[in-house]
From TrEMBL:
Protein name as catalogued: ABC transporter permease subunit
Compartments, as annotated in UniProt: Cell membrane
Organism for this UniProt entry: Paracoccus angustae
InterPro entries named in the record: BP-dependent_transpt_permease, MetI-like
Topology relative to the membrane: Multi-pass membrane protein
Annotated TM spans: 6-22, 29-54, 74-96
Residues in coiled coil: none
Keyword list, A-Z: Membrane, Peptide transport, Protein transport, Transmembrane, Transmembrane helix, Transport
Keyword Membrane: yes
Residue intervals of the ABC transmembrane type-1 domain: 20-106
Record flagged with keyword Cell division: no
Major localisation: membrane
Any Pfam family: BPD_transp_1
Length: 109
């Protein structure tokens, strides 16, 4: 209730609605943006693995894994490297978003 009262008092003192709302929604927007970026990366890798992604002449992680299936037992690194790269990238994006959220709102962490 105290936050609502402070929002009303800031609004009546002349602050714009964006100035009041931005600090309250910025952490949530950062979390949503990092989840969506990570989801898009994984979706692109999955679609290119199935052959539904971008054109085959462009190097994509899913396409690399799909083409290396026949060599899986002879050269495991052909699947391991492009398979772990999206996972590491998604983990790094989530850590960066979490760190940015904690930096913006240190009292909530």
């Amino acid at each position: 209730m105290a936050r609502a009262d402070s929002a009303w008092s800031a609004l009546f003192s002349g602050a714009s609605a964006a100035w009041i709302l931005l600090p309250n929604i910025a952490p949530r927007l950062i979390v949503i943006a990092t989840i969506e970026v990570a989801s898009a990366i994984l979706m692109e890798a999955a679609l290119s693995f199935l052959g539904l992604g971008v054109q085959p002449l462009r190097p994509r992680w899913g396409l690399m894994i799909s083409e290396a299936k026949s060599h899986m037992f002879f050269s495991f690194r052909l699947i391991a490297i492009p398979g772990t790269a999206p996972a590491i990238l998604v983990f790094a994006i989530n850590l960066a978003g979490d760190g940015l959220r904690d930096m913006i709102t240190p009292e909530r962490s």
